[in-house]
Amino acid sequence: MTEQPILHIAGLYKQFGDFVALHSIDLKVMEGEFLAIVGPSGSGKTTLIRLLVGMDEPTEGTIWLRNRRIDTVPANQRPTCMVFQSLALFPHMTVGQNIEFPLKIRGVSPDERRARALELLDLLRLPRNYYGKRVTQCSGGERQRVALARALAFDPEILFFDEPLSALDYRLRKTLEKELKDLHERTGKTFIYITHSLEEAMAMSDRIAIMRQGRFEQIAPADVIYSRPVSRFVAEFMGEVNLFPVRGGSLSEAAGLAVAPSAMGRAPFDGVPRGTLMVRPENVKFLPAGGLGADDAAPDITLTGRMRAAFDLGSRIQYEVEPSHGGRIVVETLRENRFGGAMGTEVTLGWNLDKCHLIAED
Amino acid sequence: MERLDRRLGLLAATPLATLLAATFLAPLVVVAAFSIMPAKVFSLWNVPDFSAYAEFFRQGYWSSLAWSLGMAVAATLILFVVCWPLAFAMAKVYRRFTLVMTVGVVMTLFVSENIRLFGWVLTFMKGGMVEGTLRHMTGTGFDGLLYNVPVIVFGLVYVYFPFMLFPLAQGIAMVPDDARNAAADLGASRARILWEIDLPLAAPGIMVGSLLTFVLAAGAIAESKLLGGQAVIVIADDVETAFTYGQNWPLGSALAMVLIAIIGSVALYGVSRVDLDAIMGRRR
């Protein structure tokens, strides 16, 4: 990786009538990076990618590709390329003609085009005899690979993806996620991937940018997004999470949490904490019903509640516990560690400080 | 179960099939039969011969046919060029205005074709709107714009405009926006997108529009009579004359059969080349 970013977005702003779709966005993407941009529908991610590929022009702000300003360059003159959500394969062409399309536009000779198309079929692990097959006769996964091959034939500086896997069934999606990640490593290209599924983003990307209402909420590697979200929005975006409002040091008043004396004064309870305490379901443990044994260390934070429901997720079991002061706590255990007691049983939950995270906002 | 469905389907199709056979197929069979009768007979109880077809080549009827087909081809090509941008705008650019355009174009069909053509006669004739205004303003006039081949082609273009416009708009509507965007994204210029994406993907609409206008224009008679005067004789004119003034039904039938054979084969060939189901809404 070089120091200079391959893509540099500065103050990108887009307005449609009275509606502001993007609020002065800044972003730097490094060469060879796999960046996922994640957000719910209406968060502005589609607007952003349309600006990046040149299907629309920004109201304000600039986009730099290395040293070249590209925000005013029309789509057909930008050295970037996109895999569309619909894949946008040309239905009247064969697989080979689709892949060769960018080369044909560039005036590459038919022999050279064919050779390159066959190479790309190999790279995407499609049989070479697919060259003459009609794209309308290909399966969903095969079309996906053809679309990728066509984009790679263009040899773009940056390859954009607009939720190309969203229409596929779960198993095929998982397979293609792995293939895409593998392809990223093999080609060394810069990938920018838009999706509404954080799970999909986490499976593939180096860094994740979470979008909300036309702004970036957080841009960080998957680990950080998962365990140290900057806001409730980001925390709740990735599946189940338990959140407790924190006012001063008096946790128990607000949320019914019991904090061990030894934990006070340690982060995040140093100073006067204020915000929202987050703990993921898999980090919450059931404490033994008969109390802790002599050798067991008491967890830093505990609370009691009543077991309400259990959901089988396959490798894991998810439980809903109703704390004595009301509300709902979600706990997840591995199947082998499943909770043995009956529904309605009184349970004590606990976790350590290093497993939770204080979100600064309320 | 499936066999029962098929039987019921056949049963349900019977009324329409009967109607079509009686009103469409039967007259065709009669005309075909008359075309192989000896000259100037009015009954089918005669020894068949092909004298009427021989007449087609002996007399100058082939030149009437050539004029009809030639002007139909010209009108179709002009209509395609004129209608493409408009159809494109209707399918992809205008939103509510498309409805206004549709209503506007369809409304012209409410007035009979002959009356509209007479309107053009008044516009183009000597002393009419164009020539009269010019003479009034400049003092010098000319012979008017009627009675030539270009004005007949103009008439064909004018009358068959909707028959090209709507199928074309339908065809262009079938071109996915994403395919056009993807082509641009992959470096294609507007001209390349038109050539590589728009035209091939709109082909069913282009084919339907072209066939409709060509078939109708090849059999047209009013435009050449009203606007063209006697500048050229079209084949439909000859057919009419043979049946009425000439009192030679076998000749008229033979001329009609030649026209039907040519137009029929063009239409069949065209239809076989495109996926008509696509334009009827089946997904590809």
Task: Briefly characterize the structure.
The complex is a heterodimer of chains A (362) and B (284). With 362 residues, chain A is α+β, with helices and mostly antiparallel strands.
Topology:
The complex is a heterodimer of chains A (362) and B (284).
Chain A: E1 7-16, E2 19-29, E3 34-38, H1 45-53, E4 60-65, E5 68-69, E6 80-83, H2 95-106, H3 110-123, H4 140-153, E7 158-162, H5 170-187, E8 190-195, H6 198-204, E9 207-212, E10 215-220, H7 222-227, H8 232-237, E11 242-247, H9 251-255, E12 258-259, E13 274-279, E14 285-286, E15 301-312, E16 316-323, E17 329-334, E18 346-351, E19 356-359
Parallel strand pairs in A: 3-8, 3-9, 6-7, 7-8
Antiparallel strand pairs in A: 1-2, 1-4, 4-5, 9-10, 11-13, 12-15, 13-19, 14-18, 15-16, 15-18, 16-17
Helix pairs in contact in A: 2-3, 2-4, 3-4
Chain B: H1 2-34, H2 51-58, H3 61-93, H4 97-108, H5 113-124, H6 129-138, H7 149-173, H8 177-185, H9 190-201, H10 203-218, H11 222-226, H12 235-243, H13 249-273, H14 276-279
